[in-house]
Amino acid sequence: MKLVEEKIKAEGKALDSQVLKVDSFMNHQVDPKFMKQIGDAFAKAFHGKRITKILTLESSGIAPAVMTGLVLGVPVLFGRKKTSLTLQNGLLSAEVYSFTKQESSTISVSAEYLQQTDVVLIIDDFLANGQAALGLLDICRQAGAEVAGIGAVIEKVFQDGGRKLREQGVMVESLAKITALEEGEVFFEEEVKA
Amino acid sequence: MKLVEEKIKAEGKALDSQVLKVDSFMNHQVDPKFMKQIGDAFAKAFHGKRITKILTLESSGIAPAVMTGLVLGVPVLFGRKKTSLTLQNGLLSAEVYSFTKQESSTISVSAEYLQQTDVVLIIDDFLANGQAALGLLDICRQAGAEVAGIGAVIEKVFQDGGRKLREQGVMVESLAKITALEEGEVFFEEEVKA
């Protein structure tokens, strides 16, 4: 999707060979009109899949997931990294390691909101090593729900998350595919192909 | 706003005299169409305030804030409860105690995205003791930004957050006002007035 690439080119900052900072429009500040366009793109990519629920992970996944849910007309469920007084019973959980936060956390989803009859679209901001997506996939399997696919706003194709998911037969749709990061520079798949 | 009251009556669960569970449409699962209506309501309430930015707190504030930002056409900034590799420098911070999570946390906002020229609308899911709102207000003051007001989806008027904020001269707009909770029952301000 040209739009995401252009946004990254205009506002993204490659901090080193691994970390892309997109704080200005996705991970800290959010551009709602841009997120709505992302929702439109995911809705189009997964059109006809009879999706009944979107599953994401707090916090940066919420904005693109909610916009996709608005377009598709389905509820959005966000996995939580901590339990609270209102989220304690009947939990489906998975362990997820975050490389940017350098810590492992247990993500939890209430079994009440994820049913065997659900057809789930998993949405996340980044797909890199695939830890978050694999955790959410595991939770869907625990619930017995069908997974229609995974939508990532930005995929780092030089990390192996996308490959691992596609090898499992999961449909993965990424709106921008980054082949390499160098300090101050971002390379996209389409550019490499050209 | 009748819509929020009706949603709480249909799906909310008063766990005890303090905690209202609205996991089915706001704090865990999100109803995007309902959130869009909330965005419309906040945009209407703060119409003409020349808002340039919306500030909220991860995670449950993100959905109503992003929808309000979509309607008003302004960026949304969400305060983070943890720093990460991409959020470390030039931070504005405040201490916030969460009664539902029973822990204190430091919320941080990058100074880069909050300017002296900004007119800020603070949006949050709940207004109870006002800890989160006061923390966000403090961060706006550190940035020298003007605060147009605070929009809460649900206010527990039997706790003193709303009073404290209004006493400071802050415009507070709550879409549903709860006067009391009893296990299994929720009482609203309008019902008491009637």
UniProtKB/TrEMBL annotation, chains A, B:
Pathway in which the depicted protein is active: Purine metabolism; XMP biosynthesis via salvage pathway; XMP from xanthine: step 1/1
Enzyme Commission number(s) from the entry: 2.4.2.22
Record's catalysed reaction(s): XMP + diphosphate = xanthine + 5-phospho-alpha-D-ribose 1-diphosphate
Residues annotated as binding 5-phospho-alpha-D-ribose 1-diphosphate: 128-132
Entry superkingdom: Bacteria
Binding site for xanthine: 20, 27, 156
Keywords in alphabetical order: Cytoplasm, Glycosyltransferase, Membrane, Purine salvage, Transferase, Transmembrane, Transmembrane helix
Transmembrane segments: 54-78
Main location as per UniProt: cytoplasm
InterPro entries: PRTase-like, PRTase_dom, Pur/Pyrimidine_PRTase, Xanthine_PRibTrfase
Homology family: Belongs to the purine/pyrimidine phosphoribosyltransferase family. Xpt subfamily.
Role description: Converts the preformed base xanthine, a product of nucleic acid breakdown, to xanthosine 5'-monophosphate (XMP), so it can be reused for RNA or DNA synthesis.
Description of how the protein assembles with itself and partners: Homodimer.
Name of the protein described by the UniProt record: Xanthine phosphoribosyltransferase
Source species of the chain: Pontibacillus salicampi
